[in-house]
Amino acid sequence: MNISRRHMIACGASGLALPNTAFAFSPKEITWDDLIPPGVPYSEIIGEGEVDEVNDRWLPVFDSNATKMNPALNGAYIKMPGFIIPIETTSAGVTEFILVPYVGACLHTPPPPANQLVFVKSKEPWPDDDLFAAVWVTGFMTHELMSTDIAEIGYNMDADAMEIYVW
Asked: Helix H segments across the chain?
């Protein structure tokens, strides 16, 4: 069999491209600090607030930094830890939720700023008997400011996979 030099170079070049496609969907592991854009100090996000006496809760007032998102995460495939605040549940479990950085955020304490909350739609329902466990969530992230009864949310994610976070 006679293989031309051009054919060998083309085959070699295509072989070099294969490993990159194999790793194209490996998630980037991030932390909550990564949600804040570079150069935006977290300490400047939270401003004053007011008490909602009717509902007995504190309503924080955030400055404009609270709605600034990290542009590097828009469309990124990521894996991050957090806690679940259920929004939509079925008999099989939770299918939509807010991923928060600490237990009780948005429920027992004032909500974090929008750039510290992720609205997640899960392809597979998460069992509702594991709601207080820390979880890893993997999926594609985008940013789009949305308002709910609970909080302003800055990020969205379509979850491919979820698992218990092991310390």
From this structure: 5-22
